UniProtKB/TrEMBL annotation:
Residues 18-102 form the Rhodanese domain. Gene3D superfamilies: Rhodanese-like domain (3.40.250.10). Coiled coil: none annotated. The lineage of its organism: Bacteria, Bacillati, Bacillota, Bacilli, Bacillales. This is Rhodanese domain-containing protein. Transmembrane segments: none annotated. The gene is ytwF. InterPro entries: GlpE_sulfurtransferase (IPR050229), Rhodanese-like_dom (IPR001763), Rhodanese-like_dom_sf (IPR036873). Pfam families: Rhodanese.
Length: 102
């Protein structure tokens, strides 16, 4: 199995600012998302992912986001096994996203 593609928070932020944002899916739990999400991201908790694959465009690059990068990487692995090719994990999750802001 190929290693999961990764994107740094700084690179993702740059792409959003340039209007070149990929599809972004936040797989955290509702109480985590309540503390803030990346603007434009879609919330699909990891536990609901299997039942909501039809909401994800297989042809579009999709970046998965969680708190630390672990659950989003699991999401990427699951989607690759489900036949998705354009999945990317945001390295370090929201912890790194907020650190990058400073």
């Amino acid at each position: 199995m190929n290693p999961i593609a990764q994107i740094e928070p700084s690179e993702l932020r740059e792409r959003i600012e340039q209007g070149n944002a990929p599809l972004m899916i936040d797989v955290r739990e509702p109480e985590e998302v309540a503390q803030g999400m990346i603007p434009g991201a879609v919330h699909i908790p990891l536990g609901q992912l299997a039942g909501r694959l039809d909401e994800i465009d297989q042809d579009r690059e999709t970046v998965f986001i969680c708190r630390s990068g672990y659950r989003s990487e699991r999401a990427c692995e699951y989607l690759e096994q489900s036949g998705f090719d354009n999945v990317v994990n945001m390295t370090g999750g929201m912890i790194a996203w907020y650190e990058d802001e400073e």
